[in-house]
Amino acid sequence: MEFQPSRVRENFDRDWFFHKGDIAMKYAVKAGKTGGITDNGKPEDGEWLEIAFVDKDSGEIPIPKDWSRVHIPHDWVVEGNVVNDPNLGSRPGSHGYLPTGIGFYRKMFAIPSQDYGKKISIHFDGVMGVSTVWLNGHLIGTHNSGYTGVHYDISDIIRYGDEGNNVIVVKVDATRYEGWWYEGGGIYRHIWLQKTDQLHVAHCGTYVTTPHVTEQAADVVIRTVLHNEYEEDRTCELKSTIVNAEGEIIASISDKVIVSWLDQSEVKQSLSVGFPKLWSPDHPYLYKLITEVRMRDILVDTYETTFGIRTIEFTRNGFILNGKPTLIKGTCNHQDFAGVGVALPDRVIVYKIQLLKEMGCNAYRSAHHPPTPELLDICDRLGLMVIDENRKLDSSPEGIADLKSMILRDRNHPSIILWCMENEEILEGKVTGARILRSLANVTRKLDSTRPTLAAMNHGWNGEGYSDQVDIVGYNYGQRKNQDVTDHHTYTSRIMIGSESASSTTTRGIYEVDTERGYCPAFEGMLMPSWSCTVEKAWNDLLENPFLTGIFLWTGFDYRGEPSPYRWPCINSHFGIMDTCGFPKDVYYYLKSVWTDEPMIHLMPHWNWGEKVGELIEVWVYTNGDHVELTLNGRSLGDKIMVKAGHLEWKVPYEPGELVAIAYKEGVQFAVKKIQTVDAPYIIHMEPDRMEIHADGTDIALVKVSIRDEQGRVVPIADNEVVFAVEGAGTILGVGNGNPSSHEPDKASRRRVFNGYCLLLIQASAMSGEIVVTGTSVGLQSAKLSLIAR
């Protein structure tokens, strides 16, 4: 069934102009007269202008000449060049050696005269830095958090129809760091222009819970906040309709409501869904709530809320989802990606989530801040449980406001299973910290009692009542001195989870320690931080101690900043199970072997070792088979029983040729992996994630680029530079290669491959047509790829 929308929510991302660098902005002592770039048109002359501190000349310039056109999401910091300056970031190297700074965004737009009388607001999902917004010369607000959204009612100061065009200006000061990782700078999440009737569903105004669920029925409780901005009381009809994934109406209810003028009113309604289909990572079934508000039989507002029906329970013995014990197989993740910094198009977020799902991951921790709303929508749709995380331990008015913003925005998402109050704060285990944590937990429980509260702690678990303030105690690297296991037996009422685990440092395609270039070997455990452990140990700890509930491995992907165990020349972490491009490291296949039932076997390292003939090469095998036979050039090197939730090792004298691992299960050949000594680089190969993309100006094709020999085999040590060109209905958005020590720019048309691979991001234009991509490299056969934008 189709519902007629009566509110309008327009994407406001396109056609902004950007200026890098500070601009002196005069403070307006008379409202609406900041002037300069914050407005347009020539003001009237008069002495009163001087009193108002107006820049009378620059206001006439609609588009300053030194500004560049950009589209949101935008991260200007990733467009810069790395600088070997340890003072960049909140601690040395933490920001990936990229300078931040101050930037300005400006946009002109028109609002039709028929919109006069509506409530019009602008919504910023995320601006990295302290953001200050002016509209038509009016300073309308400043927001300090780069991780929570902010919205402004602009109904009074909009120019309607013939009143003239509107000018909005956003100053972004990214010089203050909120975290110790790469945060970027700019309007890096979506912007929305919203228009509603003056009687409407309030901002984040619905709250759907399912307090009682059986196979036969699910009780659905709906709380709706109506906001009346008329100058008199209004009587309306509130209709709530539940629609299933097939678009069928399955339940509906209506109530008459009186809402006082300039006030809000919450309405509680209850419905029942027969034989509910439960949401889970394996079956992410979604329902939709359609909220309709009518006055005098006229539809004045329509509001949609996606939700799921599922049950969760955390116990001393583990996690239960929909009545079934479930091990949580999670990863922690920052939000950046190769080629784009933190300004991820929606399609790139989908790509990342799909890679995690394919590995067998069923949970995602947004570390250490609330994610972009689209990530939660995608986790709902694709099936990934989420820890939604507050930025820091802060019960100041601003800290509480940020927490409330996260809870109210996100509490309808079925993917969210935990609210995390903080991460690794200095005040863990201290009485002051306990008081702050209690305040945060109480606010959270008041706004949403359906999910437990969590603190992700790396110390102080047993000090001064701190852990008692939350429902679940998180153990970050609790394996140290068996702290987690010991505490489970000592604190008999405590429920715990492995909120951050492993921090295993490996580099894709590297198999020896290389301190000069800043690389870690892909063999887990050879080079590790003091606090960490291997992914293999973290998983086995959980198998041996299921009361740990689950693990969230640090991290799903490498991320820019926080280089460890090296600093310069490294500019990003080595913790990822995948690199910054999403190319799997070898440990990815370990997790695939223990997290999925798909027949698989993985063999490492590569088999191109040049002059090392006769030298012993360490060989590892990951598989979910029962036993493995290894052969070299047709000669058996032995058959070994698979180590449960582990790996197999051989020491093999190197000789060029073919190394083959065959896995068997229940006496039958199960999976085969072959690696060969390949020849010199010969040709470029390009493989897109999709051949067709949407011609909407935002969609992305992610093109995996590899260097291959004449027989078409990837050259695992290739480092050739590839130059790209794009013609037709698309452009190059960015490039990357996963090299943690690469100082090449991400915003470029060329990239050197790293151990055989690099990544090219192609963004569609707003018109349909063919996108022709070519890749060339000196001495190699070029490649051409044809995509279609529809």
3D architecture notes:
- With 790 residues, the protein is mainly beta.
- The protein has eight helices and 44 strands.
- The strands form ten sheets. An eight-stranded parallel barrel has the order 21-22-23-24-25-26-27-28, surrounded by four helices. Strands 3-2-4-9-6-7 form a six-stranded antiparallel β-sheet, with no helix packed on it. A five-stranded mixed β-sheet has the order 37-44-43-39-41, with no helix packed on it.
- Helix 2 crosses helix 3 and helix 4 packs parallel to helix 5.
- The chain starts with 7 loop residues before the first strand and ends with a strand.
- About 1% of the residues have low confidence.
Strand arrangement across the biggest beta sheet: 21-22-23-24-25-26-27-28
Number of helices: 8
What is the approximate shape? globular
Question: Unreliable stretches, pLDDT < 50, 5 or more residues?
Answer: 54-61
Gyration radius over CA: 28 Å
Number of strands: 44
Task: Tell me, rounded to a whole number, the average pLDDT.
Answer: 95
Structural class: mainly beta
* Most strands sheet: 8 strands, parallel, barrel
Cα-to-Cα separation, first versus last residue: 26 Å
Share of helix, binned: 10-25%
Proportion of strand residues: 35-45%
